[in-house]
Amino acid sequence: MPIRITDYLPREFVRVPMAARDKHDAIVELVDLLARGARTRDRDKLLAAVLEREAQRTTGVGRGLAIPHAKSDVCPKLVVAFGRTEEPIDFQAIDGQPVRLVVLMAGPPDQTSPHIQILARLSRMVTNAAVLDDLLLAPTPDAVYEVIRRHDDAT
Amino acid sequence: MIPRIAAVAAPTGRKLEPWLGFNMNVIVAGTGEVGFHIAQRLSNEGHDVTVIEKDRDKEHVLKSRLNALVVPGSGASADVLEQAGVADTDLFVAVTDQDEVNLVASMLAHERGARRIVARIKSLEYTTEEWAHNARKLGIDLLINPQSVVADEIYRVVSYPAASEAAEFANGRVVFLGYLIGRNSPLAGISLKDLVDIRGIYRMVITAIARKHETIIPRGEDVIQEGDIVYFVCNKQDVPAINYLFEFARQPLRNVFILGGERVGEALARKMVGLGPRVKLIERDAHLCQRLAEQFEDVTVLHAEGTDVDTLKHEGIADCDTFVAVMADEQANILCSLLAKSYGARRAIALVDRHEFVTLAPSLGVDACVSPRLATASAILRYVRPRGVTSLATVEHSNAEVLEIAVPAGSPILGRPLKEIEVPRGALIGVIVRGVDIVIPGGDDHIEPADHIIVFTLPEAIPAVEKFFS
Question: Quick one: fold of B151-155+253-345+347-374?
């Protein structure tokens, strides 16, 4: 049974469109989304952890997707937030392409295995050109969520 | 996709096809651990090997276990060298027990026409700058000192905490690392396919997995298991991010204990002080302690046995990051390492030379073993590789090798997508070094002139690999 993105991504954690216009603000916006949803005990600590990891090496995986992530005790459970920016932003991605899809992942250190699997699954998802198009074109947060859910069901 | 290949540890006596153009006449004088290992490796790779051994009782064993001509006698005898065919020798390796015999044998071999000469010299007196000059006069191309080689090797393993294997390539920009997957490792249960999918942000190539007694080159559907040793290559700059997600890293190095103050321990202590941690050197011999204490300002020298638990506890073994046991007795090194771990040392490295123990020690809880025999042999083998191979590391469990190869201009593989190139079975291209860039290659990438490639190869594929990329 393959791991499902939507098991970790609540419908209300899809943000389309995002207000952010650069990399830093995009990360802050999604961390705040988790904080407001009570998925972290310490918003500042989580933000610091994500930025610290991002400083080691970019999480722009290519094809317009970035997956900033962190492991921290301030998140009791592994959780995913999904955002799409209005305009492409620079994420210093590996392929040099700007990014519109920003997926934040945060979880406790003892849930790193599913963390790795979700990272892989998200990276794989955008290699499917049809799914990538749907993610970029879906008009509402609900429609984006449905694209991801259908992808979970299909693979 | 490269098919799965299994290698049994330490293949013996199997004659492989000679590699065209590289077939050498080799003489190895002395068949102790190092000489035997080198003779075995080179004859397995198809070279014509002659060994010289003065102990006639060993002759029968050598004949049965080595694919080599055995000439009885001393390497320092001109007659014996003639009998071994020294005039037509591409490589002469002097690795008897005695330094002076190795020096005389090398000199005689040089006079009689041997083309390249390597000598092992145990005494540090012969490793000074002045001696390097003398060695050249005697015709020796490479002087190998096992203590220095092994101290270098341990230093490298210590500077990559938690790695059971560590080697650097491309002038230190690319690293090859091996890690034991423990029960709580986040990699246990992860498939290779998942790791390939996240190569965009976790830029590493898994080149092999050692599982029980075999080493496999994994395929996408293979899943990493607890107890595996996972080997990968990556850009050194990516090590912190990789450590972050996969949790290979431990605390920065603060407290190091070295057990054994003889040559290796002394050389290691000198190197470690430069790295920054507090170093405590434990030695049972009072006179040696006295001399070490006078020599080192920044090292605490303790006069004690490695089994002296009270002293270990009193000196803070509970806060020890890395415990290194480098006494002459390898079994004591294993036991004292385990003892230190049981009292709180987080990592233990043991100097272990017998192949059986090198294989056994990790399963007991020793985190890494360094073998003078393998370290010396691999330093010598590194030297005898054909042109184009600039750097090499030998993986202890399997005799697999990692090679840095400069693909020559005009090679038919240049410019072709990697998915169209049939790399020999049992080998895998890790990364491509292109100028300042380190490329993690996919199937559509290709090798350009002036690139270096880092290639992992199982022992049986080595001749094919060297031929393929030359």
Answer: Rossmann fold (3.40.50)
Q: How confident is the model at residue B418 (pLDDT cuts 50, 70, 90)?
A: very high
Rounded CA separation A27/A46 (Å): 11
| A 49-108 near B (Cβ less than 8 A) | 53, 56-62, 67, 71, 94-95
Tell me the pTM: 0.73
CB proximity B238 to A under 8 Å:
yes
Write the CA distances from B53 to A69, B96, B232, integer angstroms: 61, 8, 39
- Average pLDDT over every residue of B395-413: 83
Span B220-259, pLDDT tens digits: 889 999 999 999 999 988 888 898 899 886 556 789 999 9
Outline where B192-285 has alpha helix (H): 192-197, 239-246, 263-275
User: pLDDT band for position B161 (50/70/90)?
Assistant: confident
ipTM of this complex prediction, to 2 decimal places: 0.91
The class that CATH gives domain B25-140 is alpha beta
Q: Is residue B13 scored above 50 in pLDDT?
A: no
Query: DSSP assignment, residue A76?
Result: S
What pLDDT, in 10s, does the model give residues B120-153? 988 766 666 677 778 888 889 888 888 888 988 8
pLDDT tens-digit series, residues B75-103: 999 999 999 999 999 999 999 999 999 99
Q: Domain boundaries in chain B?
A: 25-140, 151-155+253-345+347-374, 162-245, 377-468
Helix (H) or strand (E) holding A16: strand A14-18
Tell me which residue range forms the domain holding A43: 5-154
The answer to whether residues B391 and B439 touch, using CB atoms and an 8 Å cutoff, is no
Question: Which superfamily, per CATH, for B377-468?
Answer: Regulator of K+ conductance, C-terminal domain (3.30.70.1450)
Do the beta carbons of residue B266 and residue B203 sit within 8 Å? no
Type and span of the H or E element at B437: strand B437-439
Best of B184, B197, B224 to mutate (most A CBs within 10 Å, chain A): B197
Yes or no: say if B309 and B339 are a contact pair by the CB < 8 Å rule: yes
